Amino acid sequence: MSVDSEVEPRPRSTPDQGGAGRAATRPAAPRSRRRGNQFGIKAVLSLIAFVGLFPFLFMLMASLKSNQQYYESWWLPSAPFHFENYARAWAQIQPYFVTSLIVAAGSIVGALALCTVAAFVFARYEFVGRKVLFGLIVALLMVPGISSLIPMFVLMRDLDLLNTRAVLVIPHIVGGAVLGTLLMKTFVEQLPQELFDAARVDGASGPRMFVSIMVPLSLPIVGTIALVTVIGVWNDFFWPLLTVTENELRTVSAGLQFFQTQNATEYGPLFAGYAIASIPLLLLFVFLSKHFLAGVQGGLSNGAGK
Q1: Looking at the chain, which terminus has fewer C-beta neighbours within 10 angstroms, N or C?
Q2: What is the pLDDT of residues 192-204, one digit of tens each?
Q3: What CA–CA distance (Å, rounded) separates 114 from 178?
Q4: What are phi and psi of 74, to 5 degrees?
């Protein structure tokens, strides 16, 4: 047997196989390019997140320092940690927290009571001037809050409501009811009319349909309105500062101004007070932001096209 016969012939690659082989190697470069782009996007987003969170991180670090540690190392944590700063800060801002919770609860109840009833009437009843009246309510969203500050203050003064919790609750009820009526009406209009027709055939009255059909189905919008109202109460600064002079009636935002003057030379308790005041809003954002966005989308997205 010859040597040539023992050597097996090498298979030739057909043009299709060569094309397939080249095609198999082509995605390597785009894939590496996509990985590089994703790394760049992640790096930019991480930098933006760090810049946004850095003031909060600095506040946490400064809240655990004494004055000496604060002046020695501004940007870095230093041991030992002084957790007693939080106890001192809480003892001073606790009344502000209680007032803010009472004002937030009253504002939520009042705003929801107004906007749910108004939205149900606008969405499910026909009457003369319905569109005009709803347009006037929506127009209130375009009025700057600062323009109504002096008339509202004069009205509260004439009603003898200054230095009361009612003067803090009423503006948030009005503001929450305006936005809540818009969101709730748009959402209720998206509900199938067959639900209300079937309930009316079964003998349900308007209040019964409101309680048994509308309210249970609109809970996402109710949560959104409640969350917006709480954020508004917690961040409101100028109105409580203008209408309340008694310390036990100040909310967190206005009370921290006086807390700052009392602890101007002690930075640890001062930053600890700021950290405690920001915890409720931070928790609301972490746990309820998804539901908030879903509620706003459900109240506006489909209704915008009608």
Answers
A1: N
A2: 888 888 888 888 8
A3: 9
A4: -70, -45
The upper half-sphere exposure of residue 140, i.e. CA atoms within 13 Å in the direction of its Cβ, equals 15
Nearest to 181 by CA among 127, 141, 146, 231: 141
Closest CA to 210 of 220, 202, 218: 218
Tokens of 7: 């050597």
pTM value > 0.70: yes
Taking the CA atoms of 258, 261, 267 and 269 in sequence, report the sign of the dihedral they define: negative
Size (the chain), residues: 306
* Average confidence (pLDDT) over 27-38: 66
CA 94 to chain centre: 24
Beta carbons of 163 and 244 less than 8 angstroms apart: yes
- CA gap 169, 230 in Å, rounded: 11
Contact 79, 145 (CB under 8 A): no
Tokens of 95: 């009344």
